[in-house]
Specification:
Layout: E1 26-28, H1 39-51, H2 63-75, E2 84-87, H3 90-100, E3 107-112, H4 116-123, E4 128-133, E5 135-137, E6 140-142, H5 145-151, E7 156-162, H6 174-186, E8 190-194, H7 215-218, E9 221-226, E10 239-242, H8 246-252, H9 265-277, H10 279-302, E11 307-308, E12 316-320, H11 329-335, E13 338-342, E14 351-355, H12 360-378
Parallel strand pairs: 1-13, 3-4, 3-7, 7-8, 8-9
Antiparallel strand pairs: 2-10, 5-6, 9-10, 11-12, 12-14, 13-14
Helix pairs in contact: 1-9, 2-9, 3-4, 10-12
Bound molecules: pyridoxal-5'-phosphate.
């Protein structure tokens, strides 16, 4: 039995995901995991808790150097510690970046479908923006250079990008990233690349930070990363922005410590412990997620006419329900005891997103409920 098979009740823990519905519903919507964070993280937080004094706290002295080494080891990308800017959450950074990097008369590009906060960061910015529809290539969702060119305007200043992609699950290849980077460099467009899912890439794929491709693209990139997702600590988490360009960096840190609070003690402690001691756990996690993915694939194949996009990373799977005889697939599944993230959240109403970061026994029961829901439409 794997440690990830352990059933842990999250009801009445103020969990956003589990406390929304009653006990009869399996909630596989919001993107956190039903797994215990690794013992090294718990030990480090317990030790700090025992000190019993929780005053204002700055980042541990060597944390930036440790992250720099980690990024080199994981992605073969050489950065400098001073390129790193800490933030308590990626989401607030997205909203801040959309405003700080653009003038009020400039235009932004983002993607569709995409993580709703990325889309909202564009729409809340009070700037003109376009969401470039992703293309489906062999059941992979990708952003093409043609799509970018089509929606680009003379005053386009920023691209809000996501790789690995949420909700699609694609991990962009070197060639795909090169095209996007070339487009940004040739058109003087800053790219903000949300790479929060980068530490959960499945076998056969490799995460490449777009900023690592060349000096030119590094000079106009903001890369967003965090261990919140992979070590399941979004409730205490820490995130960081990596930005080589000094002028851009100055802009993106303008609201940290003012409108965006500084991270807090346990954010630093948990991330540092995971960086030091979490690698084995991380690998085991990815293996478990891949096994759950296989289970999902087997079931979805049997659930005609549903179609699953190729899932190359993380634990979020995007399911095309457009051929189902219902206008609201999420409601159909909810009526059968399974809460999924409605596609409308990502501007694609006839799709749903499922979170498979749950013990296999829960996922199996969820998939049985999906079968039952589909069966009601087949008669
Ligand atoms: C692409 C993406 N970015 C950011 C976040 C959230 O980041 P944070 O919890 O650090 O605000 C998520 C969470 O699902 C996500 O999928």
């Amino acid at each position: 039995m794997s440690k990830f098979d352990k059933l842990i009740s999250r009801f009445h823990t103020d969990s956003v995901r589990w406390d929304k519905h009653n006990k009869d519903i399996i909630p596989l919507w919001v993107a956190d995991m039903d797994f215990e964070t690794p013992q090294c993280v718990i030990d480090a937080m317990t030790k700090r808790l025992d000190h019993k004094v929780f005053g204002y706290t700055h980042a541990p002295d060597h944390l930036k150097e440790e992250i720099t080494r980690y990024i080199h080891d994981q992605f073969n990308w050489s950065i400098e510690p001073e390129w790193i800017v800490f933030t308590p959450s990626l989401v607030s950074s997205l909203y801040s970046i959309a405003q700080q990097i653009t003038q009020s008369d400039e235009h932004l590009l983002t993607l569709k479908p995409v993580y709703h906060h990325i889309l909202q960061a564009a729409s809340f910015s009070n700037r003109d923006f376009s969401a470039v529809p992703l293309e489906t290539d062999n059941r992979r969702l990708i952003l093409s250079e043609d799509g970018l060119k089509h929606y680009q305007q003379k005053n386009t200043r920023l691209l809000l990008f996501c790789n690995p992609h949420n909700p699609g699950g694609s991990v962009y290849s070197h060639a795909e990233l090169n095209d996007i980077a070339a487009f940004c460099v040739n058109n003087d467009i800053v790219i903000c690349s949300d790479e929060i899912h980068c530490n959960m890439v499945h076998a056969g794929h490799q995460h490449i930070p777009i900023a690592s491709l060349s000096e030119d693209i590094a000079d106009q990139s903001i890369t967003l990363m965090s261990l919140n997702k992979v070590f399941n600590i979004p409730g205490v988490g820490l995130a960081w922005m990596i930005c080589k360009n000094k002028d851009i960096r100055k802009k993106i840190q303008a609201q940290i410590g003012t409108l965006i609070p500084d991270p807090q003690i346990f954010s630093y402690i948990s991330t540092q412990a995971a960086l030091h001691h979490g690698e084995l756990w991380r690998r085991e996690l990815v293996q478990y997620l891949e096994n759950n993915k296989k289970l999902l694939q087997t079931h979805i194949t049997e659930m005609q006419p549903l179609e699953l996009y190729t899932m190359e990373a993380s634990y979020l799977a995007w399911i095309d329900c457009s051929q189902l005889r219902t206008k609201d697939p999420a409601q159909l599944f909810l009526d059968h005891g399974l809460a999924l993230q409605p596609g409308s959240m990502f501007k694609q109403d006839d799709h749903v997103r499922i979170n498979i970061a749950t013990p296999k026994s829960i996922l199996s029961e969820a998939l049985n409920r999906m079968h039952a829901a589909i069966d009601t439409l087949q008669g």
